[in-house]
Design a protein that fits this description.
Elements: H1 12-31, H2 34-38, E1 45-47, E2 52-54, H3 80-111, H4 117-152
Antiparallel strand pairs: 1-2
Helix pairs in contact: 3-4
């Protein structure tokens, strides 16, 4: 389906929005497909002594959780520094993925500009700021490693 403006030219902006919307809708549709959840081995077991049913976290199936605790309060063991470090590394990975996706989408936008200067400039600016974001994220990773090494008395070359 092509969109034409009054002069008969294809309106690439509407076409690009339709393509991006279709891709996002397809990815979301596949992600929430019932086949992914129905094919899982939940490992449901019945405990005749207590009358309880074990499903998911703590069960023996492939979908069992990773919260194996040995303390009576059922809290995960680990230091606050370890939890914060893992959270920061996770956020860093998310931002890196977002930066790469932003760069790819900006490149597609630039390629689909088809001579439209405004759209080409937006694509160039998006690529530039995606690169800046990736550089800032990587420098954040390097700074986190350096501070961790310096404060823990580890390697001076981190």
């Amino acid at each position: 389906m092509e969109y034409h403006n009054l002069t008969g030219q294809v309106n690439m902006k509407k076409y690009f929005k339709q393509v991006v919307f279709s891709l996002v809708l397809a990815i979301v549709g596949i992600s929430f497909s019932p086949m992914m959840t129905l094919a899982a081995d939940w490992g449901a077991t019945y405990n005749s002594a207590t009358g309880g049913i074990n499903v998911g976290i703590g069960s023996n199936g492939s979908m069992s959780g990773g919260w194996q605790t040995s303390n009576p309060y059922n809290l995960p063991s680990g230091s606050i520094l370890g939890i914060l470090s893992n959270l920061l590394f996770w956020l860093l990975a998310v931002f890196a993925i977002m930066g790469v996706i932003g760069f790819v989408l900006s490149g597609i936008w630039y390629l689909l500009s088809a001579g439209d200067e405004g759209m080409a400039d937006k694509g160039k600016a998006g690529m530039k700021w995606s690169i800046v974001g990736i550089i800032v994220g990587l420098s954040g990773f390097i700074i986190m490693q350096a501070v961790s090494a310096l404060l823990s008395g580890g390697s001076k070359t981190f």
